[in-house]
Amino acid sequence: MSSDTRLQGLVGGREYFVPGTCYVAPPVAPASNGGLRTVATGRDGLARRRYLRLALRHIPRLLGAIDRNPYRPTYGCLDRQYWHYRTAAFASEMYQEGVLPLALVYATPLPDNRWYGNPRVRELAAAGIRFAARSSHPDGSCDDYYPFERALGAAVFSLQAAARAYQLLGLDDPELVAWFRRRARWIIDHDESGHLANHHAMAALGLLRVAQITGDPHFRGAARSRIQYVLGWQDPEGWFEEYGGADPGYQTITIDCLAKYWKATGDGQLVEPLGRALQFARLFLHPDHSYGGEYGSRGTYHFYPHGMELLAPDNPDAADLADGFLASVTGGTMAVFEDDRMVAHRLGNLIEAYLDWSPTRPPARPAGSLARYLSHARIFVRRTASTHTVISAARGGVFKHFGPHGRRASDTGLIVETDDGRLAVSQWHDGHRDVEVDTCAGPSGRPSLTVRGPLYWTRFETATPLKQSLLHTAMWAGGRWCRQPVRRFLQNRLITGRRLAPLRLTRTFEFPDDEHLVVTDVIELLDSTTQLRRMAFGTDSESAYVAASAVYQDAVLESWTDLSQYVPRLNTERRVVIRRRL
């Protein structure tokens, strides 16, 4: 079956709406296949090189991060904190993802690729795979943040990268094949607390790679079953669940894995879900070509472009997203993931995007004006000819607003400090806040949105010698046999747990015209004893722990709004109203 036939569902020309949507759609020319016109248009060939430039400049960093001494037991380890600085007590296997970009630059003739065919690069990439196998537990599992964690995330990300690198390097190593089998069996038999669709999509891709290496149909069947698992977590609005909500950043990782799986297998069941997933993701490509942000359930700016490139020849949303990312590279508006832990995450994906870049794309779907409330994700999106606004009701009114002439505003909610030093925030993800939305209010058709909900106490915790000692000792003593309760405890403490604070924020959004946004905040103290010391509206804060959050993007340069002038009145009158016109 040709790719054009398989992908007709992706270019079917229809939008997926939810009740309450106000949408002004541009006319779409009829096509003989019942969908959009399929006459492809050209893409900017020079833009393709941006993928490569972005990736290749980090290869020296990877080659510096890997232990290159074959006489050391840590030979091949990419966790420099462990083998070099010796500030970590064990190696996190998430770092071993770096074997994939090393294998890609060794095996692939690319412009300006001075590492192509270099035997030392091949040796080090293979050493990295072998260290991943050697540092795993006997059952094939691995650790990420603490001993005996047996982390599914690290297991699937490193497996997919290692298996693909094994294929690219043309290795024939029975010991590594045996490790691939152990890791795959462990993944098949184990789940994790919390719904993280991207982990399971990556698991399906890793299992497929192992099936290709071993020829074992059991792993291929397990990959197919895991795909079904992921599709079961897709909401009708198109998003895949990430800790109880929609996160546009992690959505691109899930799309990437599903697109790779579809490309390798031709599995037609993925066509329609991918179409919906892309339409959802397209809503969060901003006018400055940045993508995602704190309004997602996990507050990430992730963007994985390879899956978009695989789908771009047939799907206008995928092509828009890929071209938007390339434009963000040039414009400097992309999020930057370049610390030691994150840098390897996307490098292989960038090189793969370059390799599978398509010179053609379907005609772009004209944007039109849009006012849409996704009632399941609890996210409001409004787009006009000159503005783009995204508001998360699930996160208490966290929003981004892009106005005309490049003006923008980012608001991650209210943060307060009480007299006794405790902190409370309005941005904690909560799917049960009171929401009033009118997407087509009044004769002018101006939408409005009101979000009402509590603030929650938060802790910005860091590790201490005592905490680390207790955790590591507990894992050695007995935690190794109850990984899920330990994980649930840490998730609740750092990510999902919520404790009500005696404050309430009511945030109303109005659009008086096509260019402006008016935000009215009502802050209330709900008890008679709490006194505040200071408060502010943040622009780039994230309260829950997410490894991929708090990266650099342009909003970090926007100043927070200091609300100290309102604190005395709030402490006495217990209520203040703040109105802003953006």
What would you say this structure looks like, in words?
By secondary structure, the protein is of the alpha+beta class. The protein has helices at 3-6, 49-56, 59-65, 80-83, 99-107, 119-135, 152-169, 174-189, 197-214, 217-231, 248-265, 271-282, 306-311, 316-331, 343-355, 465-477, 483-496, 567-573, and strands spanning 22-24, 41-42, 241-242, 245-246, 360-361, 369-374, 379-383, 388-392, 398-402, 408-411, 414-418, 423-425, 434-438, 448-458, 499-510, 518-525, 532-537, 561-562, 575-581. Residues 1-38 have low confidence and may be disordered. Strands 11, 12, 13, 14, 15, 16, 17, 18 and 19 form a nine-stranded antiparallel sheet that branches. It folds into two domains: 3-361, Glycosyltransferase (Alpha/alpha barrel), CATH 1.50.10.20; 370-463 and 498-581, no CATH class.
Task: List low-pLDDT spans.
Answer: 1-38
Name the overall outline. globular
Q: Taking Cα atoms only, what radius of gyration do you get, to the nearest Å? A: 24 Å
| Main CATH class of the largest domain | Mainly Alpha
At CATH level 2, the architecture of the largest domain is Alpha/alpha barrel
Give the overall average pLDDT.
Answer: 89
Strand content is 15-25%
Oligomer: single chain
Total strands: the figure is 19
State the share of residues found in helices, binned by percent: 25-40%
**Count of separate structural domains:** 2
Largest sheet, strands/sense/barrel: 9 strands, antiparallel
Q: What's the end-to-end separation, in Å?
A: 51 Å
Structural class by secondary-structure content: alpha+beta
Remind me, CATH topology of the largest domain? Glycosyltransferase
Provide a count of the helices. 18
